Amino acid sequence: AGPVAPNRFQVRLGGETAAEADPRPAETVLAEAVAETAVERGWRLEGPAVVEIEITPGEGGVKVEASVEHGPLEPWAYLDPQEGDPLAVRPNRAIIGRSSSGDVHVPADDVSRTHALLWREAGRIWLADLESSNGTRLNGHPIDRPTEVFAGDAIALGDASFRLRTA
C-alpha cells in the first residue's frame, strides 16, 4: 500500500524549567502536523496521530520514540455505489478490493482481491489500478497508471461503479 509512517510519538524533554510547562497544547499541534505531513507526502498512517510529551525535570536532552500503532481512523472519503451503503475510505493509501482484509471491501466477483489504490498526496487525490483482472476505469476511461481523481468522479472496479465523495 506504500510507505507506512509512524503515527505515535513519545517525546521526553528534560531541563530545569521544563517542570512549569503544560505539554497538552504542543501535543495537539504536533499530532496535527504528523497527520497533515502524512497526507502531503502520501504516507499511510495505521491509526490516528498521537504525540505524548513527558517532561522530566533535572534530566537534560530530548528523546523521541516513534512507532506504528493501529487504531481507528476517521473517513477522508467515501465511495458511493449506485445502490447500497457508501464505503468509507479511512487510511491514506487505501487498498480497495474484494479481500475482506483490505481497507475498503467491495464484495463483487469481478473485483480483484487487491484491485486499486486510492490516496492523497501533495493536495491531490490519486487512483491506481493494482494489476487487477478486470481493470479500473475513471469516468469511463481505463487507467493504467496513477491518475488524479476529483470529488464526484465515477470510479469503476470491474463492473462495480462508485462516485467519489470527500469527507
What structural keywords apply?
single chain, 167 residues, mainly beta, hypothetical protein PF0899 fold, Tumour Suppressor Smad4, 2 domains, 6-stranded antiparallel β-sheet, 5-stranded mixed β-sheet, 1 helix, 14 strands, 40% strand
What percentage of amino acids are in beta strands? Answer: 35-45%
* Secondary structure category: mainly beta
Distance between the termini: 21 Å
CATH T-level fold name of the largest domain: Tumour Suppressor Smad4
Shape: elongated
CATH architecture of the largest domain: Sandwich
Which sequence of SSEs, written as H and E, runs from N to C? EHEEEEEEEEEEEEE
Describe this entry's structure for a reader:
The structure is a single chain. With 167 residues, the chain is mainly beta. The protein folds into two domains: 60 residues, hypothetical protein PF0899 fold; 90 residues, Tumour Suppressor Smad4, CATH 2.60.200.20. The chain has one helix and 14 strands, in the order E-H-E-E-E-E-E-E-E-E-E-E-E-E-E. The strands form three sheets. A six-stranded antiparallel β-sheet has the order 5-4-14-13-10-11, with no helix packed on it. Strands 7-6-8-9-12 form a five-stranded mixed β-sheet. The protein has a three-stranded mixed β-sheet with strand order 2-1-3, covered by helices on one side. A hairpin with a 2-residue loop joins strand 13 and strand 14. The two termini are 21 Å apart. The mean pLDDT is 94.
